[in-house]
């Protein structure tokens, strides 16, 4: 095909949320050609529960499938599981699989996600040092987490904090170490970051501000000894490293596509090769001004960029940009964030942190630029629309929990 | 045809909002989320098909409700699932306004003309 024709065959590499969302959107937009999803793992599943209900054991694999088996049949989507894509040949429109078969593809969507960063210290590769990205990782961790297990979590970001909370629930004795005195500052702003981090010791987790410089284990049956930069040591039965991921860009790199800590894409998720698109955790946007955005590592961004890639493949208008959104659950609370909490500016608190639903809004003049809530999803839904609609607000509108934010939005919308 | 059950009165649900009605009162398999949107009433099974959130607490917009937990979206009229992470539709029930009363017909599919 030439790139202007509509494609007759699309291969999606990766059946995470980005890949599945791209497939759904292709069919929703009326694409009726061949559609294949290839994934190295088993049937596509959702990752957020892996540190929450799945690790806890209250959800099993069928509960977290991204789509029921019937969906693939109904939508005429070929799902190739437990098979790796070894190489893509964009010029030839070929996708080479680990079982030596070759798929033809007029368009390829790379939705390969990321791999946990290994702990870069001596002993970081010991078998009792875990990471958490896949269901297999979660199964291994779960099997090792018996009541009384001493778990050392390295990195108190989203996954570290969630896993610490779940492990505590499972009866483990948990220590959480992070080089930042208050982790997650850029994601949630200082007020909520401090509140969230203070929850850990309140629930019985030992928090340590510091860095682990090495892990030693005398024999396979002896405990792990983690050494901190201060020289102090911590004994543990197992370690979870939650220190972030690296984007899986190997296929793109081997095919000669532009990469820079992610596969570089434009607003239609197109890579530097016209036949290849990328979405989700593995992709990174370059704006029309040439500026690279920060690579997103959240569920909603993966879902949205998956849809955008589908539109891109079909040559449709790019999906409307909306502000970034994520959630995290720990210690029985549901946290959501939208927009950007990192710039300076004024903050407005709605409610009381630690006492029921509460939200912190970040304002730039009379515009909301970010918001983070505890158990107050609708404030975030409203904030998202205020940010995207560039709606003028006052601190008083936002801070009074008696003011209904939906009514406020409706009244500003009707004022035009 | 099932008999209707009075589940609320006009004015109990603000426009663009939802309320949850306990299954003990409706006799349905799940609690019922009753929504008012653009002058019409809609009733869906309340529990999101993804996890356990109450759709009555969701965000109502453009004929759909967005789940308060992970923004899975459902059509108010048909219960059809419109976006991930939910991947199963929910059940919509016919509701009718009779005088000041809002009447639920459990298990009856709403018509195009649902009030
Ligand atoms: C434990 C955990 C908890 C999380 N919790 C939250 C949360 O609460 N809120 C939130 O917003 N986000 C959360 N996230 C982040 C969210 O899950 C990710 O942003 C999302 O999964 C990214 O989707 P993706 O499709 O880009 O990548 P992935 O989900 O990583 O999927 C990529 C897929 O590609 C496959 N693949 C890669 N290379 C190949 C190849 N060469 N051949 C074949 N297949 C290949 C992989 O096997 C994988 O299945 C969490 C993530 C984890 C790991
Ligand atoms: S519980 Fe409704 S979308 Fe997850």
From TrEMBL, chain A:
Ranges for domain Reductase C-terminal come to 325-409
InterPro entries hit by this protein: FAD-oxidoreductase/Apoptosis, FAD/NAD-bd_sf, FAD/NAD-binding_dom, FAD/NAD-linked_Rdtase_dimer_sf, Reductase_C
Question: May I have one GO cellular component term?
Answer: cytoplasm
| SUPFAM superfamilies in UniProt | FAD/NAD(P)-binding domain, FAD/NAD-linked reductases, dimerisation (C-terminal) domain
MF terms per GO, please? oxidoreductase activity, acting on NAD(P)H
Query: Where are the coiled-coil regions?
Result: none
- Domain (FAD/NAD(P)-binding): residue spans on this chain: 9-306
Q: Which cofactor does it need?
A: FAD
Q: Which UniProt keywords apply?
A: FAD, Flavoprotein, Oxidoreductase
The record lists the membrane-crossing segments as none
What's the protein name?
NAD/ferredoxin-dependent reductase-like protein
TrEMBL record, chain B:
Q: Which InterPro entries match?
A: Rieske_2Fe-2S, Rieske_2Fe-2S_sf
Q: Which superkingdom does the taxonomy of this entry point to?
A: Bacteria
CDD domains on file: Rieske_RO_ferredoxin
From the UniProt record, which GO molecular function terms apply? 2 iron, 2 sulfur cluster binding; dioxygenase activity; metal ion binding; monooxygenase activity; oxidoreductase activity, acting on paired donors, with incorporation or reduction of molecular oxygen
The record's keywords, sorted A to Z, are: 2Fe-2S, Dioxygenase, Iron, Iron-sulfur, Metal-binding, Oxidoreductase
Q: Does the keyword DNA-binding apply?
A: no
Which intervals hold domain Rieske? 7-104
PANTHER family on file: 3-PHENYLPROPIONATE_CINNAMIC ACID DIOXYGENASE FERREDOXIN SUBUNIT (PTHR21496:SF23), FERREDOXIN-RELATED (PTHR21496)
User: What is this protein called in UniProt?
Assistant: 3-phenylpropionate/trans-cinnamate dioxygenase ferredoxin subunit
Upper classification of the organism: Bacteria, Bacillati, Actinomycetota, Actinomycetes, Micrococcales
């Amino acid at each position: 095909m030439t790139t202007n024709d509509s494609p007759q065959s699309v291969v999606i590499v990766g059946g995470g949320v980005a890949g599945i969302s791209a497939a759904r959107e292709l069919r929703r937009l009326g694409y009726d050609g061949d559609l294949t999803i290839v994934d190295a793992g088993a049937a596509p599943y959702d990752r957020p529960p892996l540190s929450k209900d799945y690790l806890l054991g209250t959800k099993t694999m069928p509960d977290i499938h991204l789509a029921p088996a019937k969906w693939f049949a109904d939508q005429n989507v070929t799902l190739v599981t437990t098979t790796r894509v070894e190489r893509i040949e964009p010029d030839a429109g070929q996708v080479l699989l680990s079982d030596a078969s070759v798929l033809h593809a007029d368009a390829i969507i790379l939705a390969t996600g990321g791999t946990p960063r290994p702990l870069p210290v001596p002993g970081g590769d010991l078998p009792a040092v875990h990471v958490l990205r896949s269901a297999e990782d979660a199964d291994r961790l779960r099997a090792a987490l018996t009541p009384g297990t001493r778990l050392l979590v390295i990195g108190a970001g989203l996954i570290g904090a969630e896993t610490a909370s779940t492990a505590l629930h499972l009866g483990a004795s948990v220590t959480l170490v992070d080089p930042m005195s208050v982790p997650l500052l850029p994601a949630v702003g200082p007020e909520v970051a401090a509140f969230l981090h203070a929850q850990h010791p309140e629930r019985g987790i030992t928090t340590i501000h510091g860095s682990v410089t090495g892990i030693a284990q005398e024999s396979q049956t002896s405990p792990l000894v983690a050494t901190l930069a201060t020289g102090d040591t911590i004994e543990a039965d197992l370690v979870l490293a939650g220190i972030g991921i690296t984007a899986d860009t190997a296929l793109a790199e081997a095919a000669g596509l532009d990469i820079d800590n992610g596969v570089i894409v434009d607003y239609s998720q197109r890579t530097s090769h016209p036949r290849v698109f990328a979405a989700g955790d593995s992709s990174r946007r370059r704006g029309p001004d040439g500026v690279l955005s920060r690579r997103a590592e959240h569920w909603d961004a993966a879902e949205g960029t998956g849809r955008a890639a589908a539109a891109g493949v079909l040559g449709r208008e790019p999906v409307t940009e909306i502000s970034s959104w994520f959630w995290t659950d720990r210690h029985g609370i549901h946290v959501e964030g939208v927009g950007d909490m990192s710039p300076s500016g004024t903050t407005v608190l709605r409610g009381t942190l630690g006492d029921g639903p509460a939200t912190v809004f970040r304002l730039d003049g009379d515009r909301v630029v970010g918001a983070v809530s505890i158990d107050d999803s609708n404030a975030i839904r409203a904030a998202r629309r205020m940010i995207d609609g560039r709606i003028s607000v006052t601190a008083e509108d936002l801070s009074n929990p008696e003011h209904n934010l939906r009514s406020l939005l409706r009244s500003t919308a009707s004022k035009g | 045809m099932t008999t209707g059950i009075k589940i609320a009165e006009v004015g109990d649900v603000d426009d663009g909002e939802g309320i949850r009605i306990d299954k003990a009162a409706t006799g349905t398999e799940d609690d019922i989320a009753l929504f008012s949107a653009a002058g019409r009433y809609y009733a869906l099974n309340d529990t999101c098909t993804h996890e356990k959130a109450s759709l009555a607490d969701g965000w109502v917009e453009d004929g759909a409700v967005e789940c308060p937990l992970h923004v899975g979206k459902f059509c108010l009229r048909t219960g059809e699932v419109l976006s991930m992470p939910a991947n199963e539709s929910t059940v919509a029930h016919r509701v009718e306004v009779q005088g000041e009363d809002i009447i639920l017909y459990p298990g009856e599919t709403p018509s195009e003309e649902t009030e």
